[in-house]
């Protein structure tokens, strides 16, 4: 299968007309039809039903073209990234994290690092789930993680970054938003959003609240859905401070509990590049110097 054949299939799926698809791609119709037939022979099933009126996708073809479209977009991005990299950089450092706001000072760190090492590209990778697995499979050079995730993981270096406490998230017009500290009894009679891949420390606090029998709770599959429910006045939620995007849309009020999150960066033990060490040290300095940063 060639990239040309992929482009031909995607274009034909859009037009459902061999002549128009060939014209759009500036090739002759016989050449276009031949390449489509070669691909169908290679994969072993029919993608398009031919008729005098044009073409239509088979059920298998519709599913296959969906995968091809995603593959082509990924390939396009990979080529663009490669072009950017080859033109300006001699090396890259990839940093994987669940959301951008998890490493709040990442943009400033990239800016300062670019001044020191302009030939090194810092490549952020955002992956809400399984970021540690991506790192451990050597698809990333650095990962943002909770310290509890790093216990007994071989072959890594753990770099302390900051501690993050638990906050209550509420609408800004919620009476709870006027408080400086939220205590357990403040939540009695309210609906708490729970679930969504909460880390163990947060689940412990949620369970303690639910065991009182004095709050309602509502299962939410992920953090974005939870925030949507909070905005819709369906409830409130507890969340780690490192998820705060500081947009001001919601009130984030500290919750009175001992549980907290030790946030770290991990690098591969065998990665001896001094630039990796320097970039991690730069991020650590930014967090250490930001004494007023709400964690």
Concise synopsis of the structure shown:
With 295 residues, the protein is of the alpha/beta class.
User: Can you give the mean pLDDT?
Assistant: 91
Low-pLDDT parts are none
Structure class: alpha/beta
Alpha carbon gyration radius = 26 Å
With helices defined by DSSP (H or I, 4 residues minimum), what is the helix count? 9
Which band does the percent of strand residues land in? Answer: 15-25%
Largest sheet: 9 strands, mixed
Description:
With 295 residues, the chain is of the alpha/beta class. The protein is 40% helix and 24% strand. It contains nine helices and eleven strands. It has helices spanning 3-15, 18-24, 29-43, 59-88, 106-116, 131-136, 200-210, 223-231, 274-289, and strands spanning 48-51, 54-57, 91-97, 120-126, 142-146, 156-171, 191-194, 216-219, 236-240, 250-254, 260-268. The strands form two sheets. Strands 3, 4, 5, 6, 7, 8, 9, 10 and 11 form a nine-stranded mixed β-sheet that branches. A two-stranded antiparallel sheet has the order 1-2. Helix 5 links the parallel strand 3 (91-97) and strand 4 (120-126). Helix 1 (3-15) crosses helix 3 and helix 2 crosses helix 3. It is globular. The relative contact order is 0.13. The model has no long low-confidence stretch (mean pLDDT 91).
